[in-house]
Amino acid sequence: MKVTRRQFLKVTGATAAGFALVDLGFDLQATASAAKELRIKNVTPTPTVCPYCASGCGLVIYAERDANGKFVKLLSVHGDPDNPINQGGACSKGAAMFNLREIYDERTGEQMINPKRVQKPLYRAPGSDKWEEKDWDWMLARIAERVKETRDSSFIHKEKLEDGNEIIVNRTERIASIGGSGLDNEECYILSKMMRALGLVYLETQARI
Amino acid sequence: MTNHIVDLKNTDCALIMGSNAAENHPISMRWLLKARENRGAKIIHVDPRFTRTSARSDIYCPMRSGTDIAFLGGMIKYIIDNELYHKDYVVNYTNAAFLVKEEYGFEDGLFTGYDAEKRKYDVSSWDYQVDEAGLPLKDLSLQDPRCVFQLMKKHYERYDIETVCKITGTPKNKYLEVLKTFCATGAPDKTGTIMYAMGITQHTVGSQNVRSFAMVQLLLGNMGRPGGGVNALRGENNVQGATDMALLFHIIPGYIDSPISNAANKDLLSFIRAQTPGAAKLPFTNLEEFRALVKAGFPNSGFKINTSKWVISLLKAWWGKAATLDNDFGYHYLPKRDGNKNYSHIALFEAMHRGEIDGLFVNGTNPVVGGPNANKEQEALTKLKWMVSVDLWLNETADYWTYQGWERTVKNPDVPTYTPADIQTEVFFLPAAAVYEKEGTAAQTGRWVQFRWKGADPVGESKADLWIYNELGKRIKKLYAGSTKPQDEPIVNLDWNYDDEHGHDDIMKVALELCGYNVADGTPVEGFAKLSDDGSTACGCWVYCGAMTYKDGKIIYKTQNRDNKDNSKTGLGLYSNWAWAWPMNRRIVYNRCSVQPDGMTPWPGDEERQLIRWDPTIPADPKKPEALGSWVGDDVPDFLKPTSPDKPAFTGPFIMRPELKGCLFAPKSAMKDGPFPEHYEPWESPTENIMNKQNLNPATKIWEPDKQGTTDKYPIIGTTYRVVEHWQTGALTRNLPWLAELMPDMMVELSEQLAKEKGIKNGHKVVISTTRGDIEAVACVTKRFKPFIVNGKTVHEIGLLWHYGFKGYATGDPANRLTPHIGDANTMIPEYKAWLCDIRRA
Amino acid sequence: MANLTNLYDVSKCTACRGCQVACKDWNQLPAVIEPFKGNYQTHKDTNGDTFTIVKFMEYEDPVDGVQWNFLKYQCMHCFDPACMKVCPRQAYSKTEWGATFHDPDKCIGCQYCTYACPFEVPKYREREDKITKCTLCVDRVEAGLTPACARTCPTGALTFGPRDELLQVAEERVKFLRVNGFPNATIYGKLELGGLNKLYVLTDTPDKFDLPVNPKVSGNTVFWQDWIQPYFGWLIPLALAGSATSFITTRILANKHGAHGEGGHE
């Protein structure tokens, strides 16, 4: 059976209304003063869930897109009014989600990509005091080689039990993996599957700390 | 959470303890304030320090860090002495009536079976008395001196208010106010909720702290009912999901123990025997015989009788066609750990420090800031040959090898430092996409699994973690392709097909495998009751089974459901059509408890909060109209709909327990450090234990005996916590200018009294020291921290923010350079919350 | 058109400061990072890139124990705004529904409004040589949305709607609070300065929230509007070039210095 890449999101309810008559229930257009036009007018927001505490508040992303629908830049991030957990609310962290990707420069006020975000894979050679930019292919190939090398040289295939019988244990204790609680379920799942297939037993996440 | 966030609005009283809910789970206060406004609910905050949660509470009650069991033990005694427990509930839904073996006992702080040399208990005496059929003996009058209720009463006799307050440093009048207010929820028409977080768990007695909550809530009849529950407010957006997917050494997905290298795990059948409660002594020699036994049912098994289906479906999901009956469905492909070893976070870094680990993957985590004894953990990283760090930013762990990483504000000969040239680790940094630059699901603290759509493109060349691990998996498989070595089979045979027709990773393919599919046609399995152990179903994590369905030729991922009408007729806020909750979209677990033992009558005066009920007049399955009797209601019951009064599960709400009851007494191996919680002092404590003769939890492993600080040099209690403006190790907040603005520097909170003693003024730079190191911070001198009177002596406590490191817009020294490498006896979670230190002006 | 306003109920505020950040998100304001001064409060006062702040105040009472008060602080959108009176360029106007609107295109950055304001709220933004302040999210409200701060408030401490309705809510709430442990609970903004288009429910007297108990517009402001502006408006460029400039500069520097001073809790 065919699995479709994804179902198209049908946004309904308050989120979909986007700009008009949403919160107040009445229209003030008639009395409009010198105010500039609403920045998010006619923008359909995309729902997501906050990446901080585990309350699971919904957030909506307003983004500017070009005529072909290609993403240009963020406009604003709000609490999702449809999500029953937060009903549109967002604390300081949730409200700051715009900054996760873009910021306003403190000197010029200009909108820009958050300069702390890393935009290319980085490599640090043993003993070096600097990072070097590398491409993804090089990085992934090199990591795969190092994984194989460490696994193969440390692998325990069988062990003798106290009763003298042999048991297949298929593990390596020289590779470890930590973290993952910030990942999506699907990501955690393939991470867990891959690490265990490699024979890792030092496998831990933030739940322990 | 046994309940969920919105459900907080249904409570009559909230006990917030070991949590600063208003700051670290701000939205929870929305619902608590509604409960207060609409139901007149009371909010109680128990904490060493007055916080933003305390500011919105009806009662603020101070308590010294690390004394929760004393506090709650006193509450248990108060409930029993004043007969405030919910009697019908206790007799029917808990193990209060069960008789305990004569051999079980407790003396001088030790339970029976202790081996001082190994610091371990032989738990065989911590068990029920059983009849010939192996079923536990009971005394429903609760009078037998060997019944759990009487043993519990006796155990907590020592926890009188006077002694408790001497230990906790709580003013007696405040303690009494808390006891009176919260224990009033034992009335059948009242429910109370307990909300906790890391303030409870990050102790050498962390698990027993949580056990104490469970006991209080079982006694008061607050479990499985709206407005009740033991509610862990989890700290990371998908820490629940990461746990479900078993990114933990001791389990495989779905909370099944990971296999150990021993005879009991030597093959699939042995493993299933060991993992299925009640199966140990059953006569079966193959899967088919076992299947027949399961079908007939056997005692002391509970819902885990289905373990074989979960295990084999998992193996099928991982090794697909290569998983067959002939090779134990690939059971041996799973790594088997050494049963004598611990592989948890502290142990992992101890092993790394000894040079026993060469390669490390770091997935959006930051031990250089967040690991206990962070100086040591940072030094451990220098022993690595390679490290892969996946994150949005170069966090302190990715940059641990830099000059900046080894700068220390206070020179300390005991704390080694390095230069980049000393460090031979090859470091790979892979830039990850942010949460809204990709799509996928996350399980929040109330087990709601919600879909997150993609709202922006990843910056630069950053990629979703799914892409990264899918690509890495493909490359590793390629390296092993063609290998005929048996040890490479787990990789060669690994089912790893997540690409769509264009060669892009497809999240729905991963989701289908995770939620389960029928091997024959690839359609989703509609629920875990439909999983089988004959290889016909594949399911990566059985608790997620049921999240996908097939309708009109399309797969529906229920996590994408966005119908936000409350389906509850009485306005309980279940929102069952919003996203999907595991297990089986159940919004409040153990919901059987929301109705009386007869299954039909609501608790007196509490009709509105009844979640399910037994209706003997209607069929459970419309296709079988002759079979009358079904569980109905607004929530999904914990057991199958036709579970009738003649079945043990009918009055057994706690389906994951073999005895089906809530455990006031934790039998056998449930806990490593005792069937009842007992007060022990933290590893580093300002006082002797006055409750018993043991200072430290006797079952806790001591890693670094030479690093134990003592009161002569370190007289002050140190604790750590978070604030609303930052999150965890700060990577995801200190790099955000708006949040850096809100809380710009590392700070330490201390009382005016201590500040005066030390000549510290508000805003001064100060140095805090422990045996592990020193850090600098800005002093926040506050009326909100007060000294404690502990056993007649004044003891000071200070609190440090958890979040700081040397990277980002807001920087500062990591508090965890001070915290010890010691953990809970059961989980090994580090004791971040109570240790000894000193403070001085910088 | 009835007035639309914010009601801010301090008894429901947890000081999460979602409002402070949501304001920056909507109004596209950069962060202004200042060192931690021993108090959770980020800035002593609002500034050119920070239209709203949350104030933190600690008190101790022998009976009630420790109190930690939070107060969201921003432009009060006075019914009769002093800023509007003194502005030489008519950059200020009142919308029909009660917001005090400042038009940056007309602003010349003279800052008379800052000193005329009884709350000293309008602030100078150096990079543009303009005054800025809370807009009550005029653009949002006139498109049918609530202001960003009210929209984001997780606990419902901040709401937005018709002032007369919210005033009733506030009065009920104060009545409730007075018999439930807060005998000094009061409304702020109902009568102050003839009425503010921001309403507060306070659990204690205004001074405990760092609010002026009886805010006043200085006599000079009235004089300015009624006499100088109508007749001598043409003098402004001269005034700016002359002694007024030095006066203002001194005031700004003094003010800026104050913002960096040592923080305290009271």
TrEMBL record, chain C:
Its cofactor is [4Fe-4S] cluster. The keyword Nucleus does not apply. Coiled coil: none annotated. Keywords: 4Fe-4S, Iron, Iron-sulfur, Metal-binding, Repeat. [4Fe-4S] cluster 2 binds at residues 23, 134, 137, 149. It comes from the Bacteria. This is Formate dehydrogenase. It comes from Syntrophomonas wolfei.
